[in-house]
Amino acid sequence: MLQFIGDSAAPVSYMAIAECPDMSRRRQEIRLADSEIEGISELAQAFGASRPKYLVNLVRGHLLREPQLGMTELAGLGESNKQLAALGRHFNQIAKKLNSDENVEAHSIAQALNRLKEEIDEHLAYVYRVMRSNLDRWSIVEATNDDDR
Question: Which residue ranges make up each domain of the chain?
């Protein structure tokens, strides 16, 4: 049976170390056919990246099995997070107002809004981590069975 690179589970898994940028760089030369370079150039342009950045994202995506985002996606996520954060602030203000009320029903609504605000905050933190890992090129290490992905 034919197997394509990336289709099966890698024999070794890797993970990025959050907040630990890898500033080291080594040049790796590869030889590609003109048609391959043209294809990569078109894909990189559609991705919103230079050819080298696109190739780095391909390698990191394969190693980490996590999305590597283009500038369009990063901008969209940034805007989405900004709007979600504003919603979270509004929920917090509403919850505070409801908590100041003597009504029991108002308190249960306030609790629901507080839970929703917590979920929004968790989502914002996760998206922030994904965005930072795409921008900072954190160090990659072999994952052990004890590591949480």
Answer: 14-19+28-142
